[in-house]
Design brief:
Structural class: alpha+beta
Strand order of the largest sheet: 1-8-3-6
Distance between the termini: 37 Å
Number of strands: 8
């Protein structure tokens, strides 16, 4: 993915091409020139295979990978702002393009590039390409979790007990909710039994009975529970045996929280413990209905869905496994989309060894390593064999070389405004990449410290830009 870094030096290269136009004209297109451009792109792209090997062979620290990503992100932000956006605009103006027109070319290209990246990324993920990167894999798992929870949240929102809880608490509860059902006349639990769960009714009616006399065949019906009610909680709270019998009077469908899970929730959430204890003490939902902070069902459901932000690594692995790791074709296409812009720019900017900037190649090579390391691990958890992982990443070397050859054949002689648009489109794609993949991945795995690493990357890249400006001034 990080081959987008290649275009960070595109503006400087394009400016050099124009300023040295006679030399460009004299540098006639030859098979040797095209072959060398392709080889340079292949060298730059080879780091994806090296990164995949490192990720599969060694257990790299997630924090180390995150800080490398953060450092690269900072350097990339500088390259986008100074070298690409400002540099390309300045070069257009110096070439006689009016200021506003130059700005419109660059800004329009950035917007178009961002939209292209956004749409392509969505399509690739939709068709099973999310496993190619850790960030997109997590996003897929979170979307899957919210989709699966939507029905359950709708059912829980009908219950005033759960609506009295802050929506942020619901993420603690969802893993412990189980379905239950009972046919008409079926006992759900009997007096004297050890409590095994509390119950919530989605539909149907449950009668609550007590013994009139000890050992009597006939029990007395004292209350009923129906849709939206909760029952069976008192014995769990008081740690006693059941003091009544619950019988399904119609077909009943609902949810239950088993004893061990209930006790875990009571220990983990003071708010849940407070609500359930009050319900058990008053034996009625009226005290909860009287609370001013009980939300409307639709509002509570929406806020509960929005508050679901926690995701365990096991949930990511499970989502990918159940999704069969995604589509190899979609993953492959996604990798190609990530690789094309940088490879094209390598080809477009290579005219001879003496004019080629090796910093560009080194930046692409190093930038690919951390994401390839993290991605290889994610793809392994998704069920891919090592051979398939190497194949998917390794194909980028050949594709990058082909794109560089195409760029070297067609782009060096293109009009200056066309070159500027191409660079700006790539810049917009890079900016979308930074926002959607690099920064989220770095922060999730590295924490607050990645802010300092990002600034360090920006400062060092800005120093190089400043030195280049000073050198050009002299």
């Amino acid at each position: 993915m990080f081959t987008f870094l290649a275009v960070a030096s595109g503006a400087d290269a394009a400016q050099a091409l124009v300023e040295n136009a006679p030399a460009v004209v004299q540098n006639v297109l030859t098979p040797a020139r095209v072959a060398i451009a392709a080889l340079l792109a292949a060298i730059a792209m080879s780091s994806v295979v090296i990164g995949a090997w490192l990720g599969l062979t060694f257990k790299a620290s997630d924090k180390l990978i995150a800080n490398i990503l953060a450092f690269g992100s900072g350097a990339l932000v500088n390259a986008l702002a100074v070298d690409l956006a400002f540099g390309t605009t300045q070069h257009l103006v110096n070439s006689g393009v009016p200021n506003i027109r130059a700005w419109a070319i660059v800004a329009g290209g950035f917007i178009a590039g961002g939209l292209i990246y956004y749409i392509c990324n969505k399509l690739v993920d939709k068709f099973g390409g999310s496993a190619r990167h850790k960030t997109t894999a997590r996003r897929h798992a979170m979307d899957r979790k919210r989709d699966e929870a939507a029905e359950l949240l709708g059912r829980l929102s009908k219950n005033v007990v759960f609506r009295s809880l802050p929506p942020s608490e619901i993420d603690h509860i969802l893993p412990f909710v189980r379905d239950f059902s009972a046919e008409a006349g079926e006992e759900i639990y009997r007096i004297g039994q050890e409590p095994c769960a509390l119950y919530l009714i989605d539909e149907g009616k449950v009668g609550i009975y007590v013994e009139v006399h000890h050992g009597a065949d006939q029990n007395k019906r004292i209350s009923e529970s129906h849709e939206g009610d909760i029952f069976g909680e008192m014995a769990l709270v008081s740690h006693t045996t059941r003091t009544n019998t619950a019988v399904a009077e119609t077909t009943v469908k609902g949810m239950m929280i088993e004893k061990d899970d209930f006790e875990h929730l009571m220990e983990d959430s003071p708010k849940i413990r407070e609500v359930i204890t009050r319900l058990a003490e008053h034996h009625t939902l009226e005290s909860i209905h009287m609370q001013a902070d009980v939300m409307d069902a639709a509002e509570w459901e929406e806020m509960a869905a929005d508050s679901m932000k926690r995701l365990h690594s096991s949930e990511v692995h499970q989502a990918l496994a159940e999704h069969q790791g995604g589509s190899p074709l979609a993953i492959w296409i996604g990798n190609i989309l990530d690789a094309i812009p940088g490879s094209l720019v390598i080809g477009a900017t290579y005219l001879s060894i003496s004019t080629f900037n090796p910093t560009l190649l080194i930046a692409i090579f190093l930038a690919n390593l951390p994401e390839a390391m993290a991605s290889a691990t994610t793809m392994r958890h998704a069920g891919y064999s090592n051979a398939k992982i190497y194949g998917l990443w390794g194909s980028l070397i050949l594709i990058g070389a082909a794109c560089a050859a195409i760029g070297n054949i067609f782009l060096p002689t293109a009009p200056i405004e066309f070159l500027a648009i191409c660079e700006a489109v790539s810049g917009g794609a890079i900016l979308a990449l930074v926002a959607q993949v690099m920064f989220p991945h770095a922060y999730e795995e590295g924490g607050d410290s990645v802010g300092l690493t990002t600034i360090a990357g920006f400062a060092i890249a800005f120093l190089l830009s400043a030195l280049e400006i000073v050198g050009a001034a002299h």
